[in-house]
Design brief:
The chain has 7 helices and no strands. The protein is about 80% helix and about 0% strand.
Length: about 170
């Protein structure tokens, strides 16, 4: 494993993923409300357009696919081999995306929009916008759920992509 490359790739993909997701949250705020705490979801539900939610889902899947492909191709060209080295490379890189999500989207973006609660119709007066309530949702997601689910999947996908590239290109 090349730690400096893992860190740089992790930071690059964290910035790409979180800036893309953040940008689309301003373009389609009602669709993104489906990913917010339960109180906000319920309050915003009558205003949510199913077509926008589908667009958001497609965009997020495309962003994730790009991130996984970047991790795989970058790791392939770095010369990392062996399942566990490949797995931990993908895991750590996705951990950077995870912590970037926590810091950029859940802290910074929330701080920038807390005075603009009206950007999600119906959820203007939800208690879930308050920092303490918001963190009850964000911290378990990013400190427990992602490291136990998304990051291992990213490690497996990275290992799979790199091994596939080795089979194809040698």
């Amino acid at each position: 494993m090349i730690i400096s490359r893992i860190i740089l790739d992790g930071i690059a993909m964290s910035l790409f993923f979180n800036s893309s997701a953040g940008m689309f949250s301003f373009v389609m705020p009602q669709a993104y409300s489906t990913m917010f705490p339960k109180e906000i979801k319920l309050a915003a539900a009558p205003y949510v357009d199913k077509k926008e939610v589908r667009k958001m889902t497609v965009l997020l899947i495309a962003i994730y696919l790009f991130v996984f492909l970047f991790f795989g191709v970058s790791t392939y060209y770095s010369g990392v081999t062996g399942f566990w080295d490949l797995f931990w490379t993908g895991y750590i890189e996705m951990l950077f995306v995870n912590f970037g999500d926590l810091l950029i989207l859940d802290c910074l973006l929330r701080a920038l929009t807390k005075d603009k609660r009206g950007f999600i119709k119906g959820a203007e007066n939800c208690k879930a916008w308050e920092l303490k309530e918001w963190m009850k949702y964000a911290l378990p997601e990013h400190l427990i759920i992602w490291p136990l689910t998304c990051c291992p999947v990213a490690g497996l996908v990275t290992a799979g992509i790199v091994n596939l590239l080795h089979l194809i290109f040698g």
